[in-house]
Amino acid sequence: GVSKGLVAEKLLSVMAEGNRQPDFVLCIGDDRSDEDMFEVISSGSPGASASGSFFNREVFACTVGQKPSKAKYYVDDTIEVIKMLEALAGP
């Protein structure tokens, strides 16, 4: 089947094949189905190319709610997610 992890891996691999790198990678999720995605972006293996990988950019895996997770970071609730996205978007 298709998982968020497979989608993230494919997206990052396609970017690497085109010699494109994201400015940063931010994945936010709140349930078990997000754990595969967190693992993919935290592993450092997808998106590798002759010139390196997307991991020489900043990578942020963030779960909503403090709980055991493969995500390195967490926010308390969806209100914090909105505030973070607004701050990233700027004025």
From TrEMBL:
<dbReference type="GO" id="GO:0005992">
    <property type="term" value="P:trehalose biosynthetic process"/>
</dbReference>
<dbReference type="GO" id="GO:0005829">
    <property type="term" value="C:cytosol"/>
</dbReference>
<comment type="similarity">
    <text>In the C-terminal section; belongs to the trehalose phosphatase family.</text>
</comment>
<dbReference type="InterPro" id="IPR003337">
    <property type="entry name" value="Trehalose_PPase"/>
</dbReference>
<comment type="similarity">
    <text>In the N-terminal section; belongs to the glycosyltransferase 20 family.</text>
</comment>
<dbReference type="InterPro" id="IPR001830">
    <property type="entry name" value="Glyco_trans_20"/>
</dbReference>
<dbReference type="InterPro" id="IPR023214">
    <property type="entry name" value="HAD_sf"/>
</dbReference>
<dbReference type="InterPro" id="IPR036412">
    <property type="entry name" value="HAD-like_sf"/>
</dbReference>
<dbReference type="Pfam" id="PF02358">
    <property type="entry name" value="Trehalose_PPase"/>
</dbReference>
<protein>
    <recommendedName>
        <fullName>Trehalose 6-phosphate phosphatase</fullName>
    </recommendedName>
</protein>
<dbReference type="GO" id="GO:0004805">
    <property type="term" value="F:trehalose-phosphatase activity"/>
</dbReference>
